Amino acid sequence: MITKAPRGVEDWYGERMYKRTVVEKIARDIAKTYNIKEIITPVFEHTVLFQRGVGETTDVVQKEMYTFLDKGERSITLKPEGTAGTMRAYLEHNMYAEPGPTKLFYVTQAFRYEKPQSGRLRQHHQFGVEFVGSKSPLAEVEVITLVIEMINKLGLKDAKLHINSIGCKNCRETYNEALLKYLKEHEDKLCPTCRERMQKNPLRVIDCKVEDCKKIVEKAPRTIEYLDEECREHFEELQYLLNQLNIPYEIDTGIVRGLDYYTKTVFEFVNEDGFTLCGGGRYDGLIHEIDEKQDIPSVGFGMGIERILYFLEKEGVELEAEEPVALYVGILGKEAKAKAYQLVNNLRKQGVIVETDYMERSVKAQMKYANKIGAKKTVIIGEDELQNNIARVKDMESGEQTEIALEKIAELF
Ligand SMILES: [Zn+2]
Ligand SMILES: [Zn+2]
């Protein structure tokens, strides 16, 4: 008997499943008003896509990917995030040939081999947006306003926008030198992974989760002090636009995000209790990493759906309730079965949520069941009702009964 799923994955059903669909619906509805189109990419991709796209020295690629050889000896990886696959699809289908920008959103599973902990399993779900083709800080503003609207529509506590700029490749050169110099002075206190990373990609030391490393990082040089003119202007324009739009923010020089593809802007939304709800930023170099013939800027963000559900629960936010069963059609006697089912069928065609008896229960048991599933109204269809073409619809809350011709029942809804 195998009745237990592997460690770190979960089933979705019942109320939690319903809540997830509500969250996804809110996301889809907002995306629609921004004219952002949905994209679904495969669950797995060539491993090299993530090595190049997410970055060889990131925690995700070094420690957390589900990578395996398929029967054709190809290295395949279950996607650990949504951006790289979306960008690969953007390139594969020449979406850049259309007038830009290309605005895409996804709702996807993502797989990371991590120690399962509350709110973070090995399979999780993300809603994310990719805004491809624009160099303007207005692209960042668009993605940021979308997140703000999402937080408002979900009814979550206010979360504050934290922004930073980590510069481009050009800025990174001078910054890396300064950072490396600083890190070398403290090398003995860094964790083994960081000591190794330091040489290849010192920026990754900044988001190490090991306490000792965090302490050293606190006093490390900041990217923002090493921006070239273009990057500084970009960051200034972004701040100007946010000010003009009355979007409050805080500059947080500690944010670098855990993925290599970020350039210039990085941002996070942090709630009153200091928890990060979601994050994103600009990644002008990502497309070039995937296809060296292309060089197209882009901006995006990703939001963990489990994380959102966790905060909704923690903050006691009630989502819009699931629509109840509007009518339970009870069946009395074998002869009435087909006719009663016909009525059920007709009502459903009109969009009414209807349930009936498939268990051949007694009328009393059927009413008990209707009550249990929370049906708003009930009606019993038997020989008498069919012969006289009249039935009594009962309101389960008030107990009130309405006599009505069978073909008119639909008018009650
Ligand atoms: Zn720069
Ligand atoms: Zn470390």
How does this model look, in words?
With 413 residues, this protein is α+β, with helices and mostly antiparallel strands. It has 2 domains: 14-168 and 228-314, BirA Bifunctional Protein, domain 2 (2-Layer Sandwich); 327-412, Rossmann fold (3-Layer(aba) Sandwich), CATH 3.40.50. Helices cover 38% and strands 22% of the residues. It is built from 15 helices and 16 strands. It has an 8-stranded mixed beta sheet, with helices on both faces. Strands 13-12-14-15-16 form a 5-stranded mixed beta sheet, sandwiched between helices. A 3-stranded antiparallel beta sheet has the order 2-4-3. Strand 9 (263-271) and strand 10 form a beta hairpin. Helix 5 (137-154) crosses helix 10. Bound molecules: zinc ion (ZN) (2 copies). One zinc ion is lined by residues 190-191, 193-194, 208, 210, 213.
Give the % helix: 25-40%
What is the domain tally?
2
Distance between the termini: 46 Å
Q: Structural class of the helices, strands and pairings?
A: alpha+beta
Number of helices: 15
Highest CATH level, the class of the largest domain = Alpha Beta
Largest sheet: 8 strands, mixed
Assess the beta-strand content as a share of residues. Answer: 15-25%
SS elements, strand count? 16
Distinct small molecules: zinc ion
Which sequence of strands runs across the widest sheet? 1-5-6-11-10-9-7-8
CATH superfamily membership of the largest domain = Bira Bifunctional Protein, Domain 2
**Which residues form runs of ≥5 with pLDDT under 50?**
none
CATH-assigned fold name of the largest domain: BirA Bifunctional Protein, domain 2
Supply Rg.
28 Å
Return the average pLDDT rounded to an integer: 94
Protein name: Histidine--tRNA ligase
Domain Aminoacyl-transfer RNA synthetases class-II family profile: 1-324
EC number: 6.1.1.21
Keywords: Aminoacyl-tRNA synthetase, ATP-binding, Cytoplasm, Ligase, Nucleotide-binding, Protein biosynthesis
